[in-house]
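Kindly inspect what follows.
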Amino acid sequence: MTFPTRRVALLAATGLAAISANAFAQTATSSASPAKKDQSNQVQGVTVTAPSAQDIKTSIDRRSYSLGKDLQATTGSVADVLRNVPSVQVDVQGNVSLRGDANVTIMIDGKPSGMFKGENRGQVLQQIPAANFERVEVMTNPSAAFSPEGTAGIINLITKQQRGVSTTGSARANFGTEGRKNASVTLARNTKALTLSADAGWRRDKAKGEIVDDRSRLDAATGRYADSHQKIGFASRGQSHNARASVDYDLDKQTRLSAEARYNDMEYDSKAGSAYEGKDPNGAPVTRFQRLSDGRMKRSVAGLSGDLRRKFSGDEHEFTVHTSVERTRDRQLTLASGFNQLPAVSNYVENVRIGDELVQTRLKAEYKRPLPGGAKLVAGYELQIDDNDYDNYGARGPTSAGLVVDPALTNQFRYDQAVHALYATYNRPMGDWTVMPGLRIEEVKIDTNQVTSNLKDGYDYLRAYPSLHVQYRVDDTRQINASYSRRIQRPTAQDLNPYRIYQDPYSYRQGDPRLKPQTTDSFEVAYQPRKGFNYYLGTLYWREARDGVTDVVRDIGNGVLLTTKANLAKSRAGGLELVANARLTPKVSYTISGNAAWNELGATELGFPDKRSAFTVSGYAALNVQATPKDFLQVSGFAIGKRLTPQGYREPTGMLNLGYRHKFNDRLSGVVTVQDALKTFGDKLVINTPALRDRRAMDLDLRAVFVGFTYGFGGKGVPNPRRPREPAFDFQTNPGGVGPM
């Protein structure tokens, strides 16, 4: 680990921030007014809200979508419900993208989490129960108050809160086909000065599928293509647990202390079998093998955080300090047996262990102050320290008793990063106009150490990230928003690892320690009309990026593929996104969204002579029927069009979901859901370069039927006006991995 002095600095800064808060408190206590409804997370400007159900909320820099009507939220995972959110796409392995860009930052209640980093973050999203959350916020152009990490933007998951006096809670259980099950419980206790809340969940899941890979590589000696075919069948089964507990305590009307602990783990066992045959340019088989493997994957995330908030006289006048530490551990074990038939008969055994650990420490101090004329200033400092350790081990031999450590399977890698940031935003209303410029300055230091190869590297840089949001109120039901932000995507730790890592006899991966971060300039203009219950949104957007980090696949001989990382020269993307949330009749409503996009990649460094471009269309639709006061039906589905990649494209895919909910009484309800009813969801990647042609199709069986029940208990559902829990980004100002090892 490096940065020992920064560890000391972090502790010192935490103490100084607390002392500063007390100093502010002593100067403000005498003039502080009685506590009012908490507006600490609100932003000035017009807010358009779909009335009644409030399915959609929009403000100057974000959109919030309710999960209340999505029946998949009752039985499914976070990945399941994100597929139904406008602008968001989730692939078959749980990987998230915004408008086609996979560089997304995912937060919980406004705070980043290590569980959404690394190669297994898609599997985490497929295991966390969606029932824990009540809204999803999407920021495609975040302000300078947020980290610029994630060129596509930010997705913020708003935790579901128990609202009511005294003790409230709920219990939920769902039973699905093929042994799928999940259950959760939530509890909250509200008093005059104290709020306690906790939730816990358990999920058992399974997946099975097939991967077919057909490949043609150019033989330099003959100028003809040599073909190969590989078929992989796999199945996985396992379970996950999650728990959270938090406490908020008001020392007085102006001072609040908060603390939270989170824990999440998952453990999955998998079995896979593959058959491979490679031919020479004349079509004669030259390579043939079979491979059987048993795998186990374990992942755990544990975190602690603390907050201090001090309110002063005047609305939205406060000082806050947030500190947190989080540890993420990944462990993967694979035992494999190989049976070679060509070019010679032989057998082998592999034992591979992959481990990594991320410790992420954060400190954030922020001051908000109202100014004359309804303006507001927000300024702050943020520190993030990442310590990553990777330790991989592998051994091969003719039998289990004859295993010998294999250098191609064994390596250690260390990656440390420290980010210091200063930021400020200024929100100013001027009649029907509201403007919010912002600026963030970050200093970044990165150290890498490939221990096995004795390769050390490091670099640092200082950059500025401006943002600008403008809002125009046309009338009470219409507004226009325009925004600009500069975003960045730093390479992941594994992207920088220069060691060539073995995956199977014909697949390797390798990073590049000198990769540059991707920088994106993003522009948007949105028009939002509302009439009664009906809400509509149209957004034109444009992005220009340079130095994008992408996968590059190349043949290194004898049919072996090496996947490396490279920086693209430039890329551009633009499109039109439309969203409608409306009623057809008093009992029938719909939500529909669509995105028509154009994308251009400058991939000359990857062997393409010209820039490549393509159009794609994707969309989501849901039809909601309130058949009776107690019966609710839903049909929903999404489609993702053809997507351009640097070396080819991904083929279209989609899914249809069905749901029914019955309310037995005010406390008990039941639900039935069908996921991927037509069994159409999958992932098909095509690579088409002069030297390599490849089509890899993954068909994953996600079809599942769930029957579930939810029971609420305690309290009378009466909000406690003294203790509104801070909803992170959820606000308004004027009265929402699966595969073989």
